[in-house]
Amino acid sequence: MKQLLFFTLIAGCCLGNSVQTYSQKNTLELVATIPMPNVTGRIDHLAFDSKRHLVFVAALGNNTVEVADLKEKKVIHTIKDLDKPQGILFMPENNTVFVANGDTGECDIFDAATFQKVSSVKLSGDADNVRLNSAEKKIYVGYGDGGIAIIDATRQKLVLEIKLSGHPESFQMDKASKKIFVNVPDARQIEIIDLKTNSVTGTWKMTEAKNYPMALDENNHRLFVGFRQPPKLLIFDTESGKTVSSQNIDGDVDDIFYDPATRQLYLSCGSGHIDIFKQENSNTYLAEEKIVSRAGARTSLFIPELDQLIVAAPASANSEAALLVYKLK
Question: What is the DSSP letter of 15?
Fold first, then answer.
């Protein structure tokens, strides 16, 4: 007789007496652990080369980018001598890897076949999250005390800088409406950039502090925003800016991914858990499952074509750094 194991998650600062109830459904299965034995310190974002099944890992605290082969389940190369690599992007159009360095603001571009640096774009400092608009051949980089830089992906040159009220964390591009939604945690707001004018045309003030990761459901006009203080997931209507749902989550969330195929949300939390929510409809979200990962494992990458979630676990006193590979069942 099958039994479902039920447990509750009570976030550190819950809303009233709200309690999240999860059922253990084994939505994700841990299918591989790829060791990164020479990596110490914090790990930031990840990127994927679908042709060669390579994962590029911005090992911020190690000042390296680790190149892991998902088929061979091992690290095959290390790009060294970086300056706190944070954002990372693989560009299949020219087979290059774009790395944003937090310390210097340098955006380094590497040949993905030889791993040699081919170019660099200098920003004022703290280059962070990156996004690619393949259709327009533009790279967007959050950086400094408050800005989004637009870089020509073909010429690898800085084109434009859009000013913000503070340092941007995650941002998402809505291609249909030609808008970018930007988390600016120090200002406690989301700022909306109109790409037709390349300027901030709206702001949504946040009552919860420290809005960091973000994901977008473009078809349903829903924006998913993760908060750390208190740990919350808020879902916004991108057309009105109104909150349509609020969920308690685990602590120290740093990445959120929405899978339209399964209508599920995956949140990697540094507390050592992956939180999964089910989208019943555009306004209703249910706590689906909470999976134990590792303490500090707060960055991740969802790869839809493989149905895999890759979670980056930093080194600890008891274990070496590793990529935890989860398969969607």
Answer: S
